[in-house]
Structure formats: structure tokens, C-alpha cells
Amino acid sequence: MLASQRKNAIIYYSTFIKLRFFLGLSRSKRRKKIETAKQLAKLPRARYTLAQIHGYGEVILLVSEKTELNRYVESLCAEVLDEYKIDPHYYQGDAVKRGLRNSDGTGVIAGVTRIGSVQGYYMRDMEKIPIPGELYYRGIRVDEIVDSHRATGTFGYEEVAYLLLFGKLPTAEQLGRFNNILAASRRLPDGFFEDMILKAPSKNIMNKLERSTLSMYSYDDRPDDTSLENVMRQSIELIGCFPTIVADAYAVKRHAFDHHSLYIHNPKDHLSLSENFLRMCRWDKSYTPEEARLLDMMLILHAEHGGGNNSAFACRTLTSSGTDTYSAIAAAVGALKGPLHGGANAKVQEMMRYIRENVPDPTDANLRDYLVKILRGEAGDGSGKIYGLGHAVYTISDPRAEAIRKYARSMADERGFSQEFDLTEAVVRVGIPLIREKTNRRLPMCANIDLYSGLIYRMLGIPEDLYTPLFAIARIAGWCAHRLEELLTCRNIIRPAYRSSMEYTHFVPIEER
């Protein structure tokens, strides 16, 4: 093959992937053209950094450098691993708070908040005393909010967002105006969809949400203004546009990578957030009132969880530096993306698939054998974790999980998910004693919200790609409230110390090494 042919094939392939369409060509013809280009180039797609290709010369350079970089990294990683080892004795005692945790597992007190409170135990004579879990939003129990809206058949997330931002429940008039402002904020800035979502799709919607959040900076006339009025305005706009960004990013992802037709549905002003989201994500825009109310309940339960959770703390940490709203919220999105935080709901569903595939007869005895293998790292994803069980604060119960269970059983029966629901309950019944035995845990242990949220989303027909983004759509209200509180009440940059464990030595000239 001539060098020019190879170069043109790579460019051709890259341009196709970047633009996502050929005008006037059917899907089958487009696929044939792309396969021809791939064969001509004889280079796998994984070796391209497509979103960064700007010119012909760069295409060849990127392929070459990436391949060379992989070989270089592989040759050094085994050696460099020793340079990142830290002797466990440095973490013994109370001097170093590893993971900002005390030796008893409680979180280090790093601040004071009036936004949310997470309660799962109280301290008596330096000992944890377990209690049924309670979650408060601005002093109001979240289960009271959920039960009230379930009883009246109303949508409550918008009210919760108002409560978290402004500190009080709104009157009917205040809520109506807030809903109108939120509705206007659901529309993305002119050109945003084309430039930030359509032209640079991502396989991971959380990645696209984080990038889109940062991009909003460029569409703001006052992005660095940290006054109360401006940050409140930015917060409301982000709460409004997050569902639209996620729905559009998912539609483009399906089109670009899964080869489905592209459909984009604009939000409707008179619909609630949950109604709009279901409508925007489904090709036929259909949903039932019960589906929308169930999703609304999930959004309420995920809206806030205290200042110490990983994503809220990330938001507060960046806020303490004086940076802009978009940087602080993007950091929270990135934190939530992690499988040990917001990504845990998807990991639960992955684990449940492993269980269904490998335990065809899920009696307690058979399930126990398989869960033991998971804990040993011999099954599942190999992490040694049973996802969805246990929590850093809750002991006897997670009030969010309890709220879901209260309403999920009947829906599971109606939608043909009874076996999945029963299996989930069996994992709780069998898995918790196994974990307590392995960890020598004295305190009670409970299922957390992640164990049940993925099942609810499955019953709603929501794909796994959207599980964690839905978490972000809900939690953005809590993040914005924590940013405001950090700006208004704290004056110091968050800056914990790290103990050094390095060996001190002298510089050696290169010719003597």
C-alpha cells in the first residue's frame, strides 16, 4: 500500500467517525464505506484519538505516538510500582486519617452544614450505637417528603430543589414561579447541542456530562462571578439543563456508537423534570403517570446526602479555592462517575447478571456459595465486593432503600420483575452475614440505595448508560446548595496535610547514575 493511500484511508475513517454521517447515504452504505476505510488503513479504531484530530499530519502522528507510548509505559510500569508503595505502618494509630476516616470508620469532621444530615448511629462513651437510618433535607425527613407526594400523586423533585437551594419549602406561588424559571433553563444555549454534544460524542454519558458542564463556562457572560446572585442563577440553570444534556448525549451516543437512528426531543415547559426526561429519552416520547412519579421519587431520594459524600466534598473543595461554578460542579460529576460512588448502581446490576448466569437455582445455599466466591475475588468483577450492601453511615437501615422497597414490590409484580426483586432480597439476606463474618463487623449492616435503584430503572426501561447520569441529574441540586454554603460560610481553602514517607537522598549527576 502506498503511504498516501494509507494516510488518506486514516483521514477518511477519522472524518467519518468525527462527523457521524454522510449526507444522502443509507445506513448500510455508510457501514460499507467505513469498513472499506478500516480495511485500507489496517489500523484498529482503538489506536486513534479521534476527538483530537484536526489535520492530516496529526492523524499519522497520533497513531504512531500512541503505539510507541503504550510500549514505553508497559516497559516501565513494573519497575515504577515499587516507587508508589507505602508501608502500612504509616497508617497505624490516629495520626493519619486515611481516606479522611477515623480509626472507627467515621468520617473526619471537616465542616458544618445546614443542608442535609445523614444519621445511622449515635456515639455513647466513644462507641457507635446503631439506629434506623434517617436522612434530612433542611431539617425535614426525606421519607416524609416522598410519602406526601406519593399520597397526593404530585411531583416533588422541583420542590426539593427549591428547598435545598433556598432553605425553606416554597409556597404554591413561589413553586410555580420556580418551575417556570426551571422550564426556561432546560433549553440549551444556541449551538451547544451541535458543537458540544453532536460533534464530540462519548460512549460514557457521565464523561459527556462532565465535559458539557465545563463547556457551559464559554456560554456564560459572567462565569467567574462568585456573588450569591450570580451563583444562584448558574445553579438554577444547571439544575434545569442537566436532564437535557444527558438525554441528548445518550441519543447521540446511541447513534454514533450503537448505530441507532438519531432522535432528539426538546423539553416541554408544562412537564415536570421526570416527565420530560422520560419523554426525551424514548423514541416515541411515551410514558405513564406512574412511571414518571416513580422516577420523581428516585430523584428526590438522590438529591442530597450531606457534605461529606465524595462528590459534594469535591464540589466544596474546588469551591474553597475560589474557582468558578462550572469547574466545581464538573469535579462533582467526575467524582460521582466512580464505581465506588455514583457508579455503584451499575456495578450492582452487573453483579446481579453474574449471579443470574451462574446460579440458575438461587436457593440460599447456592447463592451463599457464589457470594463467597465473589468475596474471595473468584467471581463477579474480581473486586471482592458485594455491591449494594453496607454504608459508611447507615447501620440498621438506609432510609432511601427502605422508601424504594415500600413502593417497588407492587411494581415488580406488575411488570414481571418478581424473580429479580426476590433475588435482590435474597442477596441482602445471605450476603450481609457473609460480609460481617469476613470483616469481623460488630455493628448491623444494611442494603443501600444502590442495590435497589438499578432494579427500579430496569423496570422503567431505562438503560444502564443512564443510571449514574440520573444520579447526577438529581444530585445537582445538593451540589449547588453545598457550593453556595461553602462560598457564604467558609473562608479558608480546603487543604489537608499528607505525611511524607520518602527516603531522603542527594541528587546524582546523570553520568553517575
Account of the 3D structure:
The chain has 513 residues and is mainly alpha-helical. The protein has 2 domains: 3-78, no CATH class; 131-496, Citrate Synthase, domain 1 (Orthogonal Bundle), CATH 1.10.580.10. It has 19 helices and 3 strands. The protein has helices at residues 3-19, 27-41, 56-80, 142-152, 157-166, 172-185, 192-198, 205-215, 228-258, 273-281, 289-302, 310-320, 325-336, 344-358, 364-375, 399-415, 418-439, 449-459, 467-489; strands at 116-124, 127-137, 140-141. The chain has a 3-stranded antiparallel sheet with strand order 1-2-3. β1 and β2 form a beta hairpin. α1 (3-19) runs antiparallel to α2 and α8 packs across α9. The longest helix is centred in the middle third of the chain and has 31 residues, at 228-258. The chain is globular and about 70 Å long. Mean pLDDT is 88; it is low at 1-25 and 40-65.
Please tally the β strands and state the result: 3
What percent of the residues sit in helical stretches (DSSP H or I)? 55-70%
Sequence stretches where pLDDT stays below 50 over 5 or more residues: 1-25, 40-65
CATH homologous superfamily (4th level) name of the largest domain: Citrate Synthase, domain 1
Which class best fits the helix and strand makeup?
A: mainly alpha
End-to-end span in angstroms? 45 Å
The geometry reads as globular
Fraction in beta strands: under 5%
CATH topology description of the largest domain? Citrate Synthase, domain 1
Computed CA radius of gyration, to the nearest angstrom = 25 Å
What order do the SSEs take from the amino end to the carboxyl end, as H and E?
HHHEEEHHHHHHHHHHHHHHHH
Count of helix runs: 19
